[in-house]
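Protein: Chalcone synthase A
Species: Anthurium amnicola
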Amino acid sequence: MGSDGEATKVKLPNQGKATILALGKAFPQQLVMQEYLVDGYFKNTKCDDPELKQKLTRLCKSTTVKTRYVVMTEEILRKHPELMVAGQPTVQQRLEISQRAVTRMAVEAARGCIQEWGRPAADITHLVYVSSSEARFPGGDLYLARGLGLRPQVRRVMLCFMGCSGGVAGLRVAKDIAENNPGSRVLLATAETTVLGFKPPSHLRTYDLVGAALFGDGAGAVVLGADPLPGVERPLLELHAAIQHFLPGTEKVVDGRLTEEGISFRLGRDLPEVIEGHLEEFCRELTREAGLGGASYGDMFWAVHPGGPAILNRMETRLGLPPEKLAASRRALRDYGNASSNTIVYVLQYIMEMEEEETKKKTHQGGGVLLHNKEEEGSQWGLIMAFGPGVTFEGILARKLA
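Structure follows.
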């Protein structure tokens, strides 16, 4: 980039590097306002325990979530009252509800993403589908391909039960496919619901209240490819390098099981501490991939899966990040809750929206010419990160192009 007062130079992608060409999202129709969730949840599950109600009220306030979308409705509960009874073998009913929902949402998110991309669906050569909300074969990747009218020759990959790190893992896999198949265009789709984990409140499983207070449903989509076509495709981000680490001995920190009554899972109280303890080493390795080992984290952009406010707070403190660096993550958590693998797509969309707003502001200040300074060069680079079962760290070093 140039000096103060100069127009911004065009940021071109490196040849052969995967770029994000479009983003999309979709949600179920049911919007839940956090301030009304407690009363609705206890009414729908026919529970009047004041102690549990008070606990959920406290949890809802601590999550910072304001709104969420969910598949579960009063209509579904009326049709399947057994879902409100603890210990009932309801996994079949839950899977049927969930699988219909994730396919519908994934198709909607992908269609919007392809429309934003601007090329026909027939030009998609590869499909990566991510979900922890279904268990069937053929898998949701096939139903998604069929729903979008993709060519029968499209090459499909499905990633299952990766939890919150699934979205970034999907980006990593899609990046590898795009860079190793010249001319390819990869569609990544994620879709999740909380239907499998929905439980009535119980003193025997108070942790289920965390899920009721924090998690949301939805879908996300990304089109990726290397060497964008000038004048046809608009690259948003270049995915420069990707790494994955798991932490030995932490398998039980994020623990889940598919049982006869759905998914039962537990997040260890020490999860934020575990993440914080390995964060700097992981970030150093990722930035070294581009020779940015000495870069200030405060100069970079951050697209972090918002597993919860405690994780974001510890990241901010440990890395010395200014509050605005995690603004997109906190905004996604506020608006959608923790939507598992989908959430990173929502974070990336907010980052691009914030970038566009800032560009318009600077262009206006420059009288129609986009002004910048040297300090902004570091903010071209950023980290896309998520943490999931394992405990697994997923990270991508990215560069803004738009």
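Remarks: DSSP finds eleven helices and 13 strands in the chain.
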